[in-house]
Design brief:
Layout: H1 39-50, E1 60-64, H2 70-77, E2 81-85, H3 89-97, E3 101-103, E4 116-122, H4 131-141, E5 142-153, H5 160-175, H6 194-202, H7 210-215, H8 221-230, E6 234-240, H9 243-248, H10 257-273, E7 281-287
Parallel strand pairs: 1-2, 1-4, 2-3, 4-5
Antiparallel strand pairs: 5-7, 6-7
Length: about 290
């Protein structure tokens, strides 16, 4: 099973990924490294989603693609028995320092049949090439009543309003000197129209470089929901925000950075609630 996993909610280098990854985009998008720690924002949000669907502590939980272990550590603190599956040795070492039991391996090589009450994928499943195989393996790790829980992007839901929100925020913050603007790794100017800019940076064309193809998501949120249902699972699909992470990954580590990220997140949440923005995130719960 080939996994290029970038999970783990909130890290010192990337909003929901390993410090070295190149983003979750497509097309011509090039990842611009984040410089702020989003743990204080991202982990409480994820924990609030998880609490109603997870069994009570001390249930056994496996987080796949745990990154630097911020979410796993929060689950340990909440009383759960947590195993973090993380293939990157450097990230796994940091997660272990947080007090997390880490298995440094790919999902397909982690053998613990019937052990876990829940398996979590925190923005990692879309990077596992064999989607069906990953779901089957995860199901094999679960107890008969166990649950699969996923946080995923839903960039296929993007529209012109989402593109305007993203690029207006980035451009304003860049003008204020607290964010990076670059979207691409070539010398061609970006389109002035936000929707065209989105299409250029996030919609695969089939002409990507090998590096771009390696680091873009292999599966959409729609692909993942379909694969879960094809495995015979009952899936609940809760819309969530996602644009704020794409803004936050451009922020430099300044005294105002976390407050800026919080305000962007809260603004996106209000606009999702009033229907003026689509939900570019998905919180998925899959049961047998």
């Amino acid at each position: 099973m080939n996994a290029h996993q970038h999970g783990g909610t909130g890290t010192p280098h990337a909003p929901g990924g390993h410090p070295h990854h190149h983003g979750h985009g497509g097309g011509h998008h090039r990842f611009i490294p984040a410089y702020i720690d989003l743990t204080a924002l991202a982990v409480p949000d994820t924990m609030a989603l998880l609490r109603p669907v997870l069994p009570e502590p001390p249930a056994a939980i496996c987080e796949v693609g745990a990154g630097l272990g911020a979410l796993s550590a929060a689950l340990v603190e909440a009383g759960y028995q947590v195993t973090a599956v993380e293939p990157d040795p450097e990230s796994a070492a940091i997660a272990a320092k947080r007090g997390v039991d880490v298995v440094t391996t790919q999902l397909g090589d982690h053998q613990a049949p019937g052990r876990y009450d829940a398996v979590l994928f925190t923005r990692s499943l879309h990077h596992i090439e064999d989607l069906t195989g990953a779901i089957e393996h995860a199901l094999g790790l679960l107890t008969p009543s166990g649950v699969l829980v996923l946080e995923e992007f839903a960039r296929e839901r993007a529209n012109e309003a989402a593109a305007r929100f993203l690029y207006d925020a980035i451009d304003l913050l860049a003008a204020a000197g607290v964010a990076e603007t670059a979207d691409e790794d070539d010398d061609e100017p970006q389109p002035a129209d936000p929707w065209q800019r989105w299409q250029r940076n996030f919609v695969p064309t089939g002409q990507e470089s090998a590096e771009e193809a390696e680091h873009r998501p292999l599966h959409t949120g729609t692909d993942i929901v379909a694969a879960l249902r094809a495995a015979g699972l009952t899936v609940t699909d809760e819309p969530t925000i996602g644009l704020w992470r794409m803004v936050a990954q451009r922020l430099a580590d300044t005294p105002v950075a976390n407050d800026v990220a919080r305000r962007v997140r809260d603004t996106e949440a209000r606009r999702l609630a009033d229907g003026s923005l689509p939900a570019l995130g998905r919180f998925l719960v899959a049961r047998r």
